[in-house]
Input
Amino acid sequence: MVTINIDGQHIEVVDDTTVLKAAEKAGIWIPTMCHCEYLEPYGVCRLCSVEVVRGKRSRIVTACNYPVRAGMTVHTNSPRVTWIRKLIMEMMLSRWPNVRVVHEMAEKLGVSAPRFPSLERDEAENACILCGMCVNMCNDVVRAGVLGFAHTGINREVVLPFGQKTDRCIVCGACAKVCPTGHIRMVLEDYKGKKPEYTLGPKTAISVPSLQAVPRVPVIDPASCIHLTTGGCEICATVCEPKAINYGMQDEVQEIEVGQILVATGFDIFDATAMAQYGYGTLDNVYSALEFEMLLNSTGPTGGKVLLKNGKEPRSVGIIHCIGSRDQNHHAYCSRVCCMYALKFAHLVHDRTKAAIYQFYIDMRAFGKGYEEFYTRLLDEGITMIRGKAAEVVEGSWPDNGERTLRIRCEDTLIGKFREIPVDMLVLCNAIEPRRDADRVRKLFSISKSPDGFFLERHPKLDPTSTTTDGVYIAGCAQGPKDIPDTVAQASAAAARILSLISRGEVEIDPVRATVQETYCSGCRICNNLCPYGAIEFLEDRKVSHVNEALCKGCGTCVAACPSSAMTGEGFTDAQILAELDGLMV
Amino acid sequence: MCGDETMARPTLALYWAASCGGCEIAVLDLHERILDVANAFDIVLWPVAMDFKYADIRKREDKSIDLCLFNGSIRNSENAEMARLLRAKSTTLVAFGSCSMEGGIPGLANLTTKQEILKFVYHDSPSTISTNGGIMPQTHTTMPEGEIEIPEMWETVKALDQVVEVDYYVPGCPPIPDQIWSVVEYILSGKPMPPRGSVLGAGTKTCCDECARKKEEKKLKEFFRPYEIETDPARCLLEQGIVCMGPATRDGCGALCPAANMPCRGCYGPPPNAVDQGAKMVSALSSVIDAHEPEEIERILDQIADPVGTFYRFSLAHSILRRVEKP
Amino acid sequence: MPFEPKIIGFLCNWCSYTGADLAGVSRIKSAPNVRIVRTMCSGRVDPAFVLKAFQLGADGVVVMGCHLGDCHYQEGNYKTVRRIPFLKRLVQQFGIDRRRLRLEWVSASEGDRFAEVVNEFTEEIRSLGPLKLYVHGELRGEKQRQMETERVVH
Output
């Protein structure tokens, strides 16, 4: 530990700390432009220059990489330092007149009008300010070695190897993240317009799905983690105080024996790219319902503000219902929840912006408790309801000033006219669909599916939470589109059924059921795929078929099918039925 | 049943009724073991190999023949007469082979009528030259030399147990020589015999149990005749669309036919518990047909030519309906 | 004496048997010629039962089940819908008019339809006449022989 004097303050720091870090400890701010806490100090912008006095000599050094020595005195605001900073800032401001971070720093340092002229070449808002953070990140932390500096003097620039896109780039996005001006863009070559789901943009390799996720624990995506790809980075482990990050964790497969299973695997939303007329994925500011939810969320990319891609507030917002639902070309069913959340969207947009709101609907389904009242309330808020499915969305211009905008073409069936409505932002109410892997999942549990693809309940009215397979229950949107109160009711019902069986400890089965007499079974397996309850299994070790008594419902179909009569149906055996025939035909 | 009461060897009769001779060959296929049979038994009737006459049998006392292996089905009055005669003279009467057990191939005559058979054979067949408007066989004919009587052909072919009481059955067309030997060996051993009416020389499961082919779940959209496709020798034939009687046929033969790439024809008869071999195949096959729509179902069923002939190839006489009704 | 058909009906417990029950409870008149065998599902009806019914002297056999898609056991009637056409071909080959075997779907609420099916089928069988099978004579003869041999002491 050494003691130094910064601006009159005496502080004790570890030997070899940089002056910048020491100043931080003392609560003294030193401006930096090329400094990143995850990188080794680069000292290229020179903005952190300070005056260091040792003995009789004073020198201007860069605070970011100058190590402290015992007895050192540092002046961070001496006239000499101030003059140097002003000069550097003026040079930066003239070189890059439109870059936001340069302006912000200039403002902080009280510099406004640079003395030097600027070149047209560097007038972009996202010009590269040659801070070198991307280069250092790529070479030292990520260790991919893709970015580097080329040329000298005024021609110095950050380049790719031989100026060409390269496969050596692991597309980690670290350079883009650390770049202060937005100069670096990640370009996905095969981008077909499908963004990563629900995130409105790429996410970090370590992330929580959302801030309301349960459990709220971040997960590392091995495919995009730099450390797991190159062995570099490890920034997350460095900054984690309780040292909770373990890069070596592997997926484990566990086998757990259970008596009952509740399948509540949820839903996916319809991919609106399939309906090209609405511009999802091709036009800007067209959002799916879930994306808009994320936008509205205070933990979302805009902090809950309703903003267009260019950062401005929309002047009008369109909300189109039934995207993929109630549609012969996609799903015939109604997704149930969309009318209400569309109203919610309208209400929130009305609250947060001054935008005009247009709802394009076929029918308003306000079926639940308080729903119709909410709808009536919204009508009073001045939302325009247009009864007619929007036909298409095109790019056009705003009527009064010719600015580019979206225009929705629709038929307003209540007034009997075709209309074209300019909107800045469009929200689509995507259909709720069964999960993409629903077929595979349901086969694991012997769950049937209804014609719409959702899991089939045992009885639509009297038993919506069980399936035909005993011990397997379904709840939530896996069984069909529904909102939260209905899901909670269904899930509670399923839980109650499950608990009642658990508390009883035993199951009553009907005496009428099928059994395989193994002495006569030859393992022909003709019976194996006849049972809709999955009660018939094949025992590989004994090469015979076997009936699970708990699952068998006693229909006798397999008994009739068995070509060797090895399968008997208790209560309705061949002998019993033939005896009946004998008696009837006397 | 083995005649331990006397010092003499037990007596054995082998008789063929409406038969092809294959069962006799199967016995000869015991090869050198036939000498053991000849040593162990006193053969009193074996038309194919020895020169005993019916009169010799009629002369014998009732129940004096210890074991009678009766093969062939009952097609005419001579078959029936001999069946009754041998039943009376034998302690143990065994329905030997598919024909006596269930009617066998001659049983397929029950698909038509005696009249039609005679008409075809003696008149319509391409290789018959019929003169005098076609002569039909007569049971009684007067010739200058004397009277000639020939047995009368019955309208319907019957299995042995539809004419007389049968003690045991040995299935097969023909029964496998190894199985024949195991039955003979057992009888000679003096061990207690199983209950009357039992099936000997065969198992209690079906041909599938002995078949080495791999069996998976079955879902069929097409049926094929064996010559129509090349089959995978390792996979169940039924799964590949070939109608194989294996699932509804008693085991004991070692699944010889599937091993030779041909589907089982069902010659070992129905499994122990099955009421009717053909009905079981109808039920089993329709259960694995993968179709719901009536037209599709009919299309697939069209691919099975002649269900009765296929499913009752050996067991028609013994089936529930026994014969086809002709107007 | 007019010919009274003897018809065996295989009815599934949940739909057609309940439908028949409803017909009875509702006092709907129907021909008395159908003698009912109840199974849990129409899928239990083994073709052997149908053949046996004919063997024992039935002039007609009707198999009734739930409508397709409504089977109490999900898919049992789909197996029946394949078995009965197959069986019809078989009985036709045996020389039994395939109209003597019928498959009908009757639901639990269709009491009147049950009566309609019964009446209609009875008339159809009546017009087809009694079914005379070779095996009928054989069975009578065998029964006779059995009774005679039982008197004989072995």
